[in-house]
Amino acid sequence: MPSKVVKVKIVRDGSMCFVPVPFDPKALFGKVRVPVRVTLNGYTYRSTIAAMGGRVFIPLRKSNREAAGVEGGETLNVEIQLDTEKREVTPPRDLIRALKAAPPAWDRWRDLSFSHQREYVEAIEEARKPETRARRIETAVRMVGARLGGKPK
Question: All domains of the chain, ordered by start, with CATH?
């Protein structure tokens, strides 16, 4: 499995944080926007290499920053490895029930990208109060149900 270890400074700009990719991912992985496993400080997470404004980078979400014990600004070795495993999100049962009760939301859910599914599930699972969880499920069902061809109606 292609991989590379690089020594980089984690970039933090306000709440945004990312791992710069100081090499051409196309040369190593066959394309720029590719799914990868990123390991820093002994913590591994899955992401996708992104390119924007001439910069190539890997997003570093708050949850991954916290799990890796980094704030941003640190210089450390980062392993970037091609991720060929299928990406699947297992939605919680209460979300599945709500999606299936609001056709065609369940079918549209299954068409969402891994990243979009993950974002909905993380928001729901991070709710501390039952009423917050219920509200987030309701919002997710409404938003997913309103999607047509991957775009909001």
Answer: 3-82 (2.40.30.100), 93-152 (no CATH)
